[in-house]
Design goal:
The protein has six helices and no strands. The protein is an all-alpha fold. The chain folds into two domains: 30 residues; 146 residues.
Length: 180
């Protein structure tokens, strides 16, 4: 019985040694620099930000011009049409005004936040290229920056998508109102 207890303690001690050895190896592996494959993910973030910039590339002066046309000529011009058609057209015009106002109110905010995210990404990329970050820090910062970019993308989509979707309606009404 005595020999069995000694062997069990030796086995337990050896097991603890192995566990601590593997933990040390895994901690050292985490301190390695990010791999080239992981660095490619930074390009993905860059292209997401560039996509956001393109989504915000709507000419504000054009939207202001359209709002003036809607308020000053199109809405007054439909007052003498059949009531059902007039209501439908006025609803469309007011919907366009709302979408344009919403975009113009928030455009500068999201454009500047996109610019800030791009600057942060460039700094992150610079630190990664200079191997200032270990793998764990790289992954944590990447996830945090990716989440912020995704949130920004969702917000940009909320303001820009209606403007893009209204473009065919604008063109249709523009042709129709030109014939009046």
């Amino acid at each position: 019985m005595g020999k069995f207890k000694i062997k069990r303690h030796l086995a337990a001690g050896f097991g603890i040694f192995l566990i601590s050895y593997f933990m040390m190896l895994s901690l050292n592996a985490c301190k390695e620099a990010p791999t080239p494959a992981e660095k490619v993910y930074l390009d993905t973030l860059f292209y997401k930000i560039k996509g956001n910039e393109k989504a915000l590339n709507i000419d504000e002066q054009e939207l202001i011009r359209r709002k003036d046309i809607l308020r000053n000529s199109w809405i007054p011009a439909v007052q003498d049409t059949i009531p059902d058609i007039r209501r439908r057209m006025e609803d469309d015009f007011r919907g366009m005004l709302t979408a344009y106002d919403y975009y113009l109110d928030r455009h500068l905010l999201y454009k500047s936040s996109t610019r800030i995210l791009l600057e942060e990404l460039e700094e992150f990329k610079k630190q990664t290229d200079e191997n200032q970050l270990d793998r764990t820090t790289f992954k944590a910062r990447y996830k945090e920056l990716d989440l912020r970019i995704e949130t920004n993308t969702d917000e940009i989509e909320i303001i820009a998508k209606p403007v893009y979707e209204l473009e065919p309606m604008w063109m249709r009404y523009e042709r129709m109102m030109a014939m009046r």
